[in-house]
Amino acid sequence: MERRLSQPYLTWTLAKWTMLRILRRKSTYFFLGLGLLPCLQIIVLVLAKLKGETLNTMPYGIFIYIVGYYFFTFFLLILSLFMGLGVVNDELDSGNYVFLRVRPIGFLGQVAGRFLGYWMLGSLLIGLCLSATYFTNMIFQIDELFSNLFFLARLILFSILAFGAYLAVVTAFGTTWKWFSVLASCLWLGLDIVFSLLPANTLQAISIRAHLQSLAGDEIPRFIPTLVQVDTGNVLTHTLALLSFIVLAWLYATFWLSQYETKKANAN
Could you read off the pLDDT of 116-131 as tens digits, one per residue? Predict the structure, then answer.
């Protein structure tokens, strides 16, 4: 009984409940289809193979370009935008906030549980979509299929970590504002890409895309050419930087939620 009332257990239960609830939404399957969209190029590969034609770019090279141009520049951002805005706001709008306060789950546990639920489902989508894209690309390049599996696993891991950072920051915006949060999040996601292209250490340090690019390796192409060299030397530093985005945004959202009732009372 004591275990069921412990904060870690309640937080984990909330995370699983949140993940299962989001899994039933139609938008989840929309994003699954969006993430699997690059797999349609298998049609081009099959037709080229049937006609006996050779592609100018090897399938593995095509996969690398898809990762840089589609997943890093579009999919991770749009997924974090639509998921992150509802992490805390949905809790308040649906009235679950009151129920969880009675349960009781602390403010840290509420935000952490909701965030983990969204993060786990988003991570599942990212892992599935990247894997499917990789295997559909490599179907005619079997000799390199298994030799690059470690790179695929590393790519999925760091993409999930970067998605968590994006999700956390958008969650912070969604917690602070209701309507302006969409504009603020879009503006910040755009600036994040711009900062990753500028040769300024400070801007590079606050850019999630820059840290992801460094973790993924310099072979991943960038949407816009730049003279900025990719720093691939210190994996731990870039990993800790992404984790710091998650922790700081989580603490901020927790603080804001703890002040919600006070602000609501003052407004009335």
Answer: 999 999 999 999 999 9
